[in-house]
Specification:
This protein is 23% helix and 37% strand. It is an alpha+beta fold and 115 residues long.
Amino acid sequence: MAYRVVVRRSGKVDKLQAGTLDAALDLLEHEARAAANGPRRGTVDLRVRQFEPVQQVSTRVELRGGGVRAGVDVRGDGSAEAWTGRVRRTLIEPRDGEDAFAALRRLLQSFKVEP
């Protein structure tokens, strides 16, 4: 079963392929960590409203395939949040000692059906 990892950043979309869920999760984590370690965003001031870096999604890395639609949003301050869902995104709460990537991996591997 093929999985697609879609990386959206600064108006650019990259589509990557992975053969297994584990490979797709590794690819997703690599791309999101690279974005988190990249340049930070500043505050956006629109006169009537300000958006702090933590309120801005600088990079979205999405995993599709095998009935899965999930991903990680990297915020303007470098923090990351894992989510699931297609139309309505549901945040995945990390457990003690987990980061967003471990929480996403835990959730997706809990209902993995690959041989």
